[in-house]
């Protein structure tokens, strides 16, 4: 199929960006979206242009590196997938596709479609862990964990840290991302011990880094490629409440 | 040829590691603070090592090319991690895991290393559970296990189809804690481009900041490479797009020997290639072979009709289906090791029985769904089925999956001794980057085990034996001559690449290299194909240095420049792989030389001549490298032909 692409180009964080229009031809519907971007880049390269920079690595929906806003939707027009898992059969011959970076105060653009998500790192460094050192821990089966709790913890732990929730939220809130980690660890006996302290520290950092408040629109949940549920936000709020009561 | 010293401790196999630990040198706590350690790569191996070394009190500087350690290629591992816990009470033990790994590796790995790996495997699971890794559990709340290829016991722990993700997030959380505590300084989006060797010891690295383009040097008392495998030399592989050999290759060029480069694993269950624009291959976890049955039509007419779209696989009669693995290997059936399963698929497709494009076989869940019900299969593999459907646009609950072998893992890597130290003192290599534990073929679920064993439980000990007398060495400033020269060399390399201003993209040349490798150094190799590969790669390398085009500038983010630096190294490594394969006149594990096979088509080893690790020494650009041999002495295990038939 033949397509028209409107791609956000921006030299670096300091320079102002804008849309550029390109056309690509003979794209196979079995190609992935990023393979279509590869074709565009090869074309630019052969015509003395500069390829479009975008983040990607695993190309199988798990590393969380890819991050495009496609036709107004984070990760494009399909559900429960990342951009790298999007296939061209979702588009029709002659379509115009608008491709933008994540837009959020917490995620400044590095170049073209690449953004800086190091704010997520800083939030996790505040407490997204169980404070254990290597060695000297009990046997794996010493603490039985009910299957339901283990499964729910796994649902939350499936977050890939892509940032689609932030990019989708009108307040650019990172609550879904933060709650996924808080909830995963609060559900497990190993993590429960530090649950309230963790919730407080991570939320404080999130606020400090310029992410907005959560106003419960639920938009994040819809666009999350891993189906992380806003029920985790409720659990985070409970932990947070306890933390505030204690202090 | 010199003999390599593996520094294996004396004594009985089961005593070696505990004996080593009780007698090795340690660094006193007050001195740890004075010691800097660089860890390059923060996948499972690097993240677990950096966190553990930070906890011990060393100053750690860690590097990765992605924007976060959480995105390392380890994240993509699906199936699981082995450990000799024997929770299912089905007869597992440290010895059995050791034995399976040596046998699975076709008797080309070191007994002492593999035994140590099996010994520490249980502690890995305990550690991960303590970190909050949500492993699958049964209704009683205890940890669940599944089986993997090459084993008759269930010893694989898993977290849905996302085990690597969960283990990496566990190690990453431990790393984050150390970053917060100031014990580890993390440098993301930073690529290592050389090792600095000073007075014969590794003392630092040269890096390029991928955002600013700045080239810098970093000092440390020891350097650890945890930079993963080199499967992307084939262009198409299951590795992440950025996976590369550059760190290991630069170390090789500085004097670290490179061992068994020809040992590459081809995974039998990947989604087949769809066309020219294909950028990478997607693995379907080996765990699927627990419940899926592999077959192709028994009759060529059926295969042809299917390829032409005139027949559906569901309509092939039961008696016309050839379950070739169950037929050839009754004892292990669909669970034979990867190399055996891959070759068997190629054999059927070469015989004209392949489906899809002709390079595909079926993995069928109909039988398991009939036996267990759809919901059980969904619970076990739901996310993998969804992934398959998104890519291929077919529903595997109703029609068999199509699979074909693809490059997946590299057993070869930087040569290390028992202490995981390379031939450059002070330079260590862990995880997939080293060569040490999997011989000529790795068993499923054992890479995660090795990465975490190295990072949590082995390196934090063995590196101290080296560092014990290093605390008095003062940090070497960036102005010292060795550092200045190393930096200049990297700057010159970047300059040279930018100035070629040719007319072919990096990817285009990389694809050509991949094709040479797949056709000649792939699943079936011959002396002739290997010589051809050496000649063609030499030509392609010359072509690259004349014709590659890198747009943009060396300052700031330049993705094409990053790729060019990596492909320049692949163009050298590919040749070394072919040389190693050409030298090894036998078939073993993933290395199949068509001249050396039994009448039934099984790999034919030559233990008299080739029971050694082939470690290559760099001798200069466009020079033939030197081969050094480390003899493998099997003292505790009887070396036999691998048999998965009975
Ligand atoms: C799709 C897939 C599924 C798999 N499933 C399983 C499984 O179920 N069980 C199992 O046991 N194994 C599995 N494996 C294998 C296993 O995942 C890998 O062997 C293992 O994770 C490698 O870990 P590592 O830490 O050595 O390297 P990696 O995870 O590859 O990490 C490499 C690190 O090095 C960094 N790096 C690389 N080059 C540079 C450089 N030049 N400069 C700076 N940093 C650099 C990267 O940024 C990264 O942090 C699978 C592999 C694949 C591809
Ligand atoms: S919660 Fe979902 S959308 Fe947000 S970072 Fe995690 S995976 Fe991405
Ligand atoms: S590239 Fe890894 S999730 Fe898309």
Characterize the structure shown.
The complex is a heterodimer of chains A (247) and B (646). Chain A contains nine helices and seven strands; from the N terminus they run ββαβββββαααααααα. Chain A is an alpha+beta fold and 247 residues long. Chain A has two domains: 3-110, Ubiquitin-like (UB roll), CATH 3.10.20; 118-246, Fumarate Reductase Iron-sulfur Protein, Chain B, domain 2, CATH 1.10.1060.10. In chain A, the strands form two sheets. Chain A has a five-stranded mixed β-sheet with strand order 2-1-5-3-4. Chain A has a two-stranded antiparallel sheet with strand order 6-7. In chain A, β3 (68-70) and β4 form a beta hairpin. In chain A, α2 runs antiparallel to α7 (195-208), α3 runs antiparallel to α5 and α5 packs across α9. Chain A is elongated. The termini of chain A are far apart. By secondary structure, chain B is an alpha+beta fold. The radius of gyration of chain B is 24 Å and the shape is globular. Among the domains of chain B are: 268-405, Succinate dehydrogenase/fumarate reductase flavoprotein, catalytic domain (Flavocytochrome C3, Chain A, domain 1, Alpha-Beta Complex), CATH 3.90.700; 481-631, Methane Monooxygenase Hydroxylase, Chain G, domain 1 (Up-down Bundle), CATH 1.20.58.100. The two termini of chain B are 40 Å apart. In chain B, a hairpin with a 2-residue loop joins β6 (190-198) and β7 (201-209). In chain B, α3 packs parallel to α6 and α15 (506-520) runs parallel beside α17 (559-583). Classes of the chains: A alpha+beta (247), B alpha+beta (646). At the A-B interface, α1, α2 and α3 of A face α3, α5, α6, α12 and α13 of B. The complex binds flavin-adenine dinucleotide, iron/sulfur cluster and FE2/S2 (inorganic) cluster (FES). The site of FE2/S2 (inorganic) cluster has 13 residues of chain A, from loops.
């Amino acid at each position: 199929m033949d397509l028209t692409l409107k791609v956000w180009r921006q030299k670096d964080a300091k320079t102002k960006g804008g849309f550029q229009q390109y056309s690509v031809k003979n794209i196979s519907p079995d190609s992935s979206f990023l393979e279509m971007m590869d074709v565009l880049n090869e074309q630019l390269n052969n015509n003395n242009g500069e390829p479009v920079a975008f983040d990607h690595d695993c190309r199988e929906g798990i590393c969380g590196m890819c991050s495009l806003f496609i036709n107004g939707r984070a990760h494009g027009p399909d559900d429960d997938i990342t951009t790298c898992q999007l296939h061209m059969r979702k588009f029709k011959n002659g379509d115009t596709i608008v491709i933008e970076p994540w837009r959020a105060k917490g995620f400044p653009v590095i170049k073209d479609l690449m953004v800086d998500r190091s704010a997520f790192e800083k939030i996790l460094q505040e407490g997204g862990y169980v404070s254990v050192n290597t060695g000297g821990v009990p046997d794996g089966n010493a603490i039985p964990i009910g299957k339901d709790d283990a499964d729910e913890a796994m649902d939350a732990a499936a977050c890939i840290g892509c940032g689609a929730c932030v990019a989708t939220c009108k307040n650019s809130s990172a609550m879904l991302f933060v709650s996924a980690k808080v909830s995963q660890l609060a559900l497990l006996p190993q993590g429960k011990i530090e649950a309230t302290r963790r919730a407080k520290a991570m939320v404080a950092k999130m606020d400090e880094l310029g992410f907005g408040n959560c106003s419960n629109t639920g938009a994040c949940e819809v666009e999350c490629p891993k189906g992380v549920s806003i029920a985790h936000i409720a659990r985070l709020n409970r932990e947070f409440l306890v933390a505030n009561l204690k202090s | 040829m010199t003999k390599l010293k593996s520094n294996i401790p004396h004594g009985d196999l089961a005593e070696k590691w505990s004996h080593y630990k009780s007698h090795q040198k340690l660094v006193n706590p007050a001195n740890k603070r004075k010691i800097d350690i660089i860890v390059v790569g923060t996948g499972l191996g690097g993240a677990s090592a950096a966190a553990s070394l930070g906890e011990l009190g060393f100053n750690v500087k860690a590097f990765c090319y992605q924007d976060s350690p959480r995105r390392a290629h380890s994240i993509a591992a699906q199936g699981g991690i082995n450990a000799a816990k024997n929770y299912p009470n089905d007869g597992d033990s440290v010895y059995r895991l050791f034995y399976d790994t040596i046998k699975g590796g076709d008797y080309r790995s070191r007994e002492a290393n593999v035994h140590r790996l099996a010994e520490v495997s249980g502690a890995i699971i305990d550690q991960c559970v303590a970190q909050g890794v949500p492993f699958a559990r049964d209704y009683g709340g205890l940890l669940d296990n599944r089986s993997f290829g090459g084993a008759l016991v269930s010893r694989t722990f898993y977290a849905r189809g996302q085990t690597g993700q969960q283990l990496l997030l566990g190690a990453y959380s431990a790393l984050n804690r150390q970053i917060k505590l100031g014990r580890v300084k993390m440098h993301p989006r930073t690529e290592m481009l050389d090792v600095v060797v000073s007075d014969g010891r590794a003392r630092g690295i040269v890096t390029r900041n991928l955002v600013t383009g700045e080239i810098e040097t970093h000092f440390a008392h020891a350097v650890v490479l945890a930079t993963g495998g080199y499967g992307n030399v084939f262009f198409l592989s299951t590795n992440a797009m950025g996976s590369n050999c550059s760190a290991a290759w630069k170390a090789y060029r500085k004097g670290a020997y490179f061992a068994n480069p020809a040992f590459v694993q081809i995974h039998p269950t990947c989604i087949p290639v769809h066309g020219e624009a294909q950028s990478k291959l997607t693995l379907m976890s080996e765990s699927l072979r627990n419940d899926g049955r592999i077959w192709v039509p028994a009759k060529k007419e059926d295969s042809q009709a299917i390829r032409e779209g005139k027949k559906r696989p569901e309509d092939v009669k039961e008696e016309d289906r050839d379950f070739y693995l169950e037929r050839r290997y009754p004892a292990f059936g669909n669970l034979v090791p990867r190399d055996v399963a891959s070759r068997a698929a190629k054999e059927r497709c070469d015989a004209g029985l392949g489906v899809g494009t002709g390079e595909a076989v079926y993995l069928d869940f109909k039988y398991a769904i009939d036996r267990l019900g759809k919901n059980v299969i969904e619970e076990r593999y739901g996310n993998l089925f969804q992934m398959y459907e998104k890519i291929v646009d077919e529903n595997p609950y109703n029609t068999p999956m199509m699979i074909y072998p693809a490059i997946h893992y590299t057993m070869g890597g930087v040569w290390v001794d028992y202490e995981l130290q390379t031939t450059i003192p002070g330079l260590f290599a862990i995880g997939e980057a080293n060569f040490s534990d999997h011989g000529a073929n790795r068993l499923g679920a054992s890479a995660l085990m090795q990465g975490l064993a190295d990072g949590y439980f082995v390196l934090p000990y063995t590196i101290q034996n080296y560092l014990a007398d290093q605390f008095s060495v003062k940090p070497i400033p960036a102005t010292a001559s060795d550092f200045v020269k190393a930096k200049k060399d990297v700057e010159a390399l970047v300059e040279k690449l930018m100035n070629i201003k040719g007319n072919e993209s990096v990817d285009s040349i990389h694809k050509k290299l991949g094709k040479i490798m797949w056709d000649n150094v792939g699943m079936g190799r011959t002396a002739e194909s290997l010589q051809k590969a050496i000649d063609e790669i030499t030509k392609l390398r010359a072509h690259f240095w004349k014709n590659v085009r890198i747009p943009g500038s060396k300052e700031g983010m330049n993705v094409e420049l990053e790729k060019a630096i990596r492909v320049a190294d692949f163009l050298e490594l590919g040749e070394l792989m072919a040389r190693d394969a050409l030298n090894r006149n036998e078939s073993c594990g993933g290395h199949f030389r068509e001249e050396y096979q039994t009448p039934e088509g099984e790999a034919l080893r030559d233990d008299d001549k080739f029971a050694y690790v082939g470690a290559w020494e760099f001798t200069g650009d466009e020079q033939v490298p030197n081969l050094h041999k480390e003899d493998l002495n099997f003292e505790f295990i009887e070396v036999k032909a691998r048999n998965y038939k009975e």
